[in-house]
Amino acid sequence: MSWLNRFRSKSKRNDVPDFSGSPLRIGEHLITDVHSHMVPGVDDGSESLAQSMEMIERLVDMGYRQAVITPHIHSDIYPNSIHTLKNPFKKLKEAVAERWPSFKVHLAAEYFMDDHFEHSIGTNELLWFPGLDENGQEVKCVLFEFGFHEPPMNHEHVLFELQMAGYTGVLAHAERYPYWHKMPQEIESLAERGVWITVNAASLAGAYGPEMYRVAKRLIENNIARMICSDAHGMRHMESLDAISKSPAVQHWLHNGKPASANLPVLN
């Protein structure tokens, strides 16, 4: 039994994602996938170039035109940097260019908000990707995440430093922080301060359970979320993208929410 069927069998009806819509090529609407772990062998994502190419092939098939690839940078678990990432990413980029010349990939990172992240802001060592703000001006976007088990400490100060350094913060999988599920104003406050809010396709597909689904759905229904991302670690996350392509809630957001990922500059 797939995880989708297991989720349906254990959930109340109003907690179950609705996949009754006509399927669409979701990549034609999102254009850019802005969060994935497809640099081979550097974190808990893709283990090989072959696995990465298989995932990118699915993105191409779904109509995506480009991808921002974001390996973990976590000083205690994945102490990556541009120095550890540039060579494996270069091999991936070359393989993608040879097979799909028009599909672009760009190296950024998913930073864990810790002392190393704050240090990297101060030394101007951040991996970022280009975005466009509400006025059409190009901005430098940095993807970051919080811990899942306890609220972040000092995050307001760090985000202020990030903005003062000229970057736009992009919060990964905003629905996956359980300590804020009963305090949605915390996520809304970040959005009001200029942080771009993202949710994971797997959450909207029900893969992480009913509570994550409800929060993710609320974030897109209220147009707080600016991006839906694959957060792809393997092919199971491509299954989630396929699933939500038939979600009426996602389709409504795609047509009315103006996904930020659809307006990114062409990646290098």
Summarize the structure.
By secondary structure, this protein is α/β, with parallel strands linked by helices. Helix content is 39%, strand content 16%.
Highlighted features:
268 residues; 10 strands; globular; single chain; disordered N terminus; seven-stranded mixed β-sheet; three-stranded parallel β-sheet; alpha/beta; 16% strand; 11 helices; TIM Barrel
Task: Give the arrangement of secondary structure elements.
Blueprint: H1 3-10, H2 27-30, E1 32-33, H3 49-61, E2 66-69, E3 72-73, H4 82-99, E4 104-107, E5 110-112, H5 115-122, E6 129-132, E7 138-145, H6 155-164, E8 167-171, H7 184-192, E9 196-200, H8 201-204, H9 210-221, E10 225-229, H10 235-244, H11 248-256
Parallel strand pairs: 1-2, 2-4, 3-5, 5-7, 7-8, 8-9, 9-10
Antiparallel strand pairs: 6-7
Helix pairs in contact: 3-4
